[in-house]
Amino acid sequence: MVVGLWDTCVLSQGIEDYENYYNEIHVDDEQAEVKTRNALQSPLQRWPGQRIYYRIANNFSEIEASNVRYAVSSFNDQTCLQFEEMTGNPPAGRRYVYFKKSKNMCGTRVGYQPLQFGSHDVQLTERCLSMPGVIQHETLHVLGLFHEQSRPDRNEYVEIDYDNIPRKYWSQFMAMEQTTTFNVPYDYQSVMHYSKNAFAKDPTKPTIRALIEGKPVERDMGQTRGPSEGDLAKIRIMYNC
């Protein structure tokens, strides 16, 4: 569990401030390193077809349910995917995304799980449900995207200050070679990118610096407003839009 990060939100409102409690990249998870890649390569881990069914738990407030619908509608508008809300049972044999409320968890499994049946759960706290961009971040995980700063070519674009990061969080920043970027340019403004101060021991100093002409510079990165063009480009390529 992350201690004290909620107190630093005034300094850093990065996506990691929303999903750092019991999320899909939990630091005590033995699979944490595997889960920090950028984009799934295997077609088996992409949702079959372009229509994805989803359900909203019945304990959501009207505003929370509206935020979920608004969040997924962006993919309907900007990609070839079509999220369709269910009112009854899903078509026979089809998995569906289930947005559920949690007291302390914002997270989900990454990518389609071909050996599982029923719902693919997305757990969201009230705080996460108040931010459509955070809901979209988790939906991009569902579709198969990991965090931007862990893509295999990231050392060309960012420098990680491990001295300012507790060792138990180092796996969150590892570059993974066994994945693909789909040749989409590195995106500092991806909704999948951590903020410059993510998991910092000293939150007044960055843990991630951009590399400009090979030299580290401090700049803002990451955001919680919603998918960037780079995020959407990966989804379009992954799903043959």
UniProtKB/TrEMBL annotation:
This is Metalloendopeptidase. Disulfide bonds join 106-128. Its cofactor is Zn(2+). SMART domains: ZnMc. GO terms for biological process: proteolysis. CDD domains: ZnMc_astacin_like. The active site is at residue 138. The gene is Dwil\GK11006. It comes from the Eukaryota. The keyword Metal-binding applies. Zn(2+) binds at residues 137, 141, 147. GO terms for molecular function: metalloendopeptidase activity; zinc ion binding. Residues 38-241 form the Peptidase M12A domain. It is an enzyme of class 3 (hydrolase). Keywords: Disulfide bond, Hydrolase, Metal-binding, Metalloprotease, Protease, Zinc.
